[in-house]
Design goal:
The chain has 289 residues and is of the alpha+beta class. The protein has one domain. The protein has helices at residues 15-25, 35-48, 69-79, 84-92, 114-121, 130-137, 206-214, 230-233, 244-247; strands at residues 3-7, 61-64, 96-101, 111-113, 147-152, 155-160, 165-173, 179-186, 192-196, 199-204, 219-226, 264-268, 273-278. It has a five-stranded mixed sheet. A three-stranded antiparallel sheet has the order 4-1-12. The chain starts with a strand and ends in an 11-residue tail after the last strand.
């Protein structure tokens, strides 16, 4: 079943890539739309983008001290949680907490699911209080999204509606017995901003960031770190995100573009996370010495 969303397809420069997005990431409405109709939608999306967002990629940043009571409580809770070692590792490579301006953050994700955003932000005051901002952006509770699994013979599939279900380790794993397999868990649920090449990108928290802007917030607390490569920033070379060329152009996509005035209103296909594990046992004859 499709879900309402907003798409920044107008930033795509290649017509075939735009058609691919509108056909397969979105659900053409009506279903009888031809390629010519979708090209017209793409052109309309381009026309809606408007002038560049002020200070795109260079939002206002204000450090939040580790001794701040909220941050101290969040850090203590995370270090005692299942995320403890992963979170400690992130802090160990220089991550910090910052209050960041939302609209100028560069957005490499093409679309947002407005229903999912509403599930995060519908109960916020307008504008949100500081307590609401911290609870929304830096939660420490394990997500309640369901995980479904199915086993057939020597294969198993794990599925979740939440894309925050991620692989933490694969291959040889630490265990009392020799173990090869897959470790999965929820990614750290913080709004996460990275700085690459001197410009700031939203790495995690697109639905919350959109919802916070709609609720009247201008800034939000986040986990913040510098990264050395486009891949670490989250920019993909396979077309799954905007390209680095688009993101460093004169009018790059930002979180501020996710509103009805600048983005194309679409019906989106519901994305799900699927992890698959396969295993087998073999018998082989040894080669003679």
């Amino acid at each position: 079943m499709p879900t309402p969303g907003l798409s920044l397809v107008g930033f795509l420069q290649d017509q075939q890539q735009a058609l691919q997005h509108l056909k397969f990431s979105c659900v053409p409405a009506p279903a009888t739309k031809t390629d010519a109709d979708l090209v017209a939608d793409w052109q309309a999306a381009k026309a809606k983008l408007g002038a560049p967002i002020a200070n795109a990629g260079n939002p206002n940043l204000t450090p939040i001290a580790a001794t701040d009571p909220r941050i101290a409580a969040i850090t203590a809770a995370m270090l005692q949680s299942a995320w403890g070692s992963h979170f400690s590792g992130i802090l160990g490579i220089g991550a910090s907490f910052q209050m960041v301006e939302i609209a100028p953050l560069l957005a490499y994700q093409l679309s947002v699911d407005t229903d999912r955003s509403g599930s995060h932000c519908a109960q916020l005051a307008n504008p949100p209080t500081e307590d609401e901002l911290y609870a929304c952006c830096l939660p420490t509770k394990v997500p309640t999204d369901q995980i479904h699994s199915s086993r057939q013979g020597q294969s198993m599939i794990i599925k979740s509606r939440s894309l925050n279900l991620v692989t933490f380790a694969e291959g040889p794993l630490q265990s009392p017995m020799p173990t090869v397999g897959l470790q999965f868990w929820w990614g750290i649920p913080f709004v996460h901003v990275v700085r690459f090449g001197g410009r700031c990108y939203l790495h995690n928290g697109y639905h919350r960031s959109y919802g916070l802007l709609q609720a009247g917030a201008t800034h939000m607390p986040c986990l913040f770190r510098d990264v050395a490569t486009a891949e670490e920033a989250g920019i993909k070379a396979d077309g799954g995100t905007f390209s680095q060329a688009v993101l460093t152009g004169p009018n790059p996509p930002t979180i501020g573009h996710f509103n009805a005035a600048r983005a194309l209103t679409v019906q989106m296909r519901r994305a799900i996370r699927i992890l698959q594990i396969n295993w087998s046992q073999h018998m082989m004859f040894d080669e003679p010495d």
